Amino acid sequence: MSQHPIKQVLTTAALSVGAIMLMAPQTVAGEIKVGLISPLSGPIASQGVPFAKGIAAGEEHTSEVNGHTLTFIQLDDASDPSQSARNARKLIDEDNVDVLIGTGGVPGSMALASISREAQVPLVSFTPLFLSGENAAWAVTTAQPASLMLDTVVASMSADGVTSVGYIGFSDSWGDLAYDTLNAAADEAEIDVITNERYARSDTSVTGQALKIVSANPDAVIGGTAGTPGALPYLALAERGYQGRIYGTHGIINPDFVRVAGASAEGLLAPTGPAVVAAQLPDGHPSKSVADEFSAAHVAVHDEAPRDAFSAYAFDAWMVIADAASRVDASIEPGTAEYRTALRDAIFETTELAVTHGVLTYRPGSPYGADERSAVMVKLEDGEWVLQD
Which domains does the chain have, with CATH numbers? Predict the structure, then answer.
């Protein structure tokens, strides 16, 4: 007996789901295996569960490509980068997957990128990756580069008259990346970054860090965080009566963050991809129709419209693989090294692919394909994200 789609997507065991339908030949020649790794449990499950739902929406949207079915084998990495790596090796060595998708959190995705390169199996991540040159030869991401998103935030700060900003972020690679990128953009805008406070994703209090920021009295504070753990700084700042402007990164755009942060995040400004405010986009935006299709597929599978950014990034990863697979020579058999290389090459030849979070064009040497069409600023008002001009 088949499982209900929601239960099927959220299971932590390996599973098969159906396929992509960009081309529809009369016969199906073979099976393209995709290894999906997502944090369905642990500290960043608030990202991982939407990722899984986005893949289910992708399955609803399409069903086969280039005469092949796409079969997903999904594993939970429990928000642990070491488990991400073990899952990747299992999917490659035991299941002979043709491509990997995953995972939530930069540390886990970087672990996948390393294994992807070593095993020469392409990776489509939905999380930022900081790779270049040969290190980026086998991996791409549907996420926007931190530079694009932080540049968008700093431009907003500058327009708002901010001259000093306090930073608080995770004590990991994402926190480092956000801080370094913020510094570069703020320096050009002549905005002083006057604090660099950090905390672990598993921490339950940032009282000490918040006190230091309040004491420094910056015009604004930005969190280099993601998901539910990203709410802590805003809760702590509100408790200490901080009255300045508050900003975030695209990593916090999900319902659990809004629920946990509550009133402390009212007025928060953050960059995100267009999918989050699809209904508010002008008709000419390249993501509007794709985002509408994604929303319809999400409703069909989950009986609710998407309200987060993460599920859309996963849907986009599905679309990247589908588009690339449609351009691989149909005579090349999936499950072979030749197919994995051909699929990798096709991914890096992706040009002007409209997705829910903008438009993607990949080129060898960088994992990123997004441009300025992939970033908008939103403001949290009464628990809803509102597009800013």
Answer: 5-144+287-372 (3.40.50.2300), 146-272 (3.40.50.2300)
